[in-house]
């Protein structure tokens, strides 16, 4: 089959299924499963795609038409310039979470410049996105990634290896701090923060394909922050910091939780859409 024909039928299938970005998604899927590039689509539209690649592309297009997100189908996603593999129990890392990396990075660089090393703890590491992005940017840092999911920890370990960061990254299975020992210079976390009753109202791509454990923050969405705020000081160097991603309406509540545990808000950052997204706390 010709590349242009495969692209055309893929676009048509996704448009017919009501997929918003049908043309873009079709292009990404066709390129991946046929091993072609955008340049091929423009310069060599008549190139022949072998039948196995056509079959693999059609399977992938059928999955997308049924609602599965593109990056789940591809099996990986880019985050802060790293290629991160996904698995059943990992959240697909979001561009908004790069805001958390941006917020911590200057502090980390200063810390390393002053002290030569830096230990990070990433609570609810998932694919390892936050920890690995920070390690890639700061070669003197080391990180421990914690998750309750063994599947997520295996994927984070694979991502560390694939990105050449495994010597500085270790993974621990733990319910937040339970199995964590020692003190860290920085504690980072993008915990589950959606109110339980809201899960059913989320977009199908999120509701059906991101793991519930990565989303559900309990009745008011704040369960994880309560635990992290209450226990962070015992695992933090005296002049260390805690940086958390939050839901856009949680700034006040999360700030209060940390203030009650002896922290002060040192920075708040907004995401790409201008909504509150990241809070950074230091100890009083
Ligand atoms: C919103 S996801 C964030 C994943 C990743 N850090 C990111 O930003 O893409 C939250 C993560 O917390 C983990 N998690 C949920 N409850 C946990 C708990 N009690 N202890 C440790 N990790 C937990 C989930 O398995 C999930 O990987």
Bound molecules: S-adenosylmethionine
Largest sheet: 7 strands, mixed
Order of helices and strands: HHHHHEEHEHEHEEHHHEHEE
Architecture of the largest domain, according to CATH? 3-Layer(aba) Sandwich
Q: In percent, how much strand structure appears in the residues?
A: 15-25%
What is the CATH third-level topology name of the largest domain?
Rossmann fold
Q: Point out poorly predicted stretches.
A: none
Strand order of the largest sheet: 5-4-3-6-7-9-8
Topology, element by element:
Blueprint: H1 3-16, H2 22-34, H3 38-43, H4 51-65, H5 70-74, E1 76-79, E2 82-85, H6 98-115, E3 118-123, H7 129-137, E4 141-147, H8 150-162, E5 169-173, E6 184-189, H9 204-209, H10 212-215, H11 223-231, E7 236-245, H12 251-260, E8 263-270, E9 276-283
The structure holds S-adenosylmethionine (SAM).
S-adenosylmethionine is lined by residues 91, 93, 97, 124-127, 129-130, 146-149, 152, 175-176, 190-192, 213-214.
């Amino acid at each position: 089959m010709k590349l242009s024909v495969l692209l055309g039928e893929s676009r048509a299938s996704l448009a017919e299924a009501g997929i918003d970005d049908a043309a873009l998604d079709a292009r990404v899927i066709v390129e991946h499963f046929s091993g072609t590039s955008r340049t091929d689509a423009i310069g060599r539209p008549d190139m022949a795609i072998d039948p196995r690649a056509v079959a693999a592309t059609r399977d992938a297009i059928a999955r997308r038409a049924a609602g599965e997100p593109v990056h789940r189908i591809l099996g990986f996603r880019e985050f802060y310039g790293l290629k991160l593999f996904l698995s059943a129990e990992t959240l697909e890392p979001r561009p908004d979470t790069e805001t958390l990396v941006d917020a911590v990075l200057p502090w980390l660089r200063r810390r390393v410049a002053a002290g030569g090393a830096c230990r990070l703890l990433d609570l609810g590491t998932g694919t390892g996105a936050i920890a690995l992005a920070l390690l890639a940017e700061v070669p003197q840092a080391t990180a421990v990634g914690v998750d309750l999911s063994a599947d997520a920890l295996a994927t984070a370990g694979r991502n560390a290896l694939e990105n050449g960061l495994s010597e500085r990254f270790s993974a621990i299975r733990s319910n937040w701090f339970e199995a964590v020992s020692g003190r860290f210079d920085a504690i980072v976390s993008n915990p589950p923060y959606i109110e339980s009753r809201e899960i059913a109202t989320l977009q199908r791509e999120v509701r059906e394909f991101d793991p519930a454990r990565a989303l559900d923050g309990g009745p008011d969405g704040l369960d994880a922050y309560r635990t992290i705020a209450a226990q962070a000081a015992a695992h933090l160097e005296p002049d260390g910091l805690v940086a958390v991603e939050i839901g856009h309406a949680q700034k006040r509540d999360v700030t209060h939780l940390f203030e009650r545990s002896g922290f002060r808000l040192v920075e708040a950052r907004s995401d790409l859409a201008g909504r509150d997204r990241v809070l950074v706390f230091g100890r009083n």
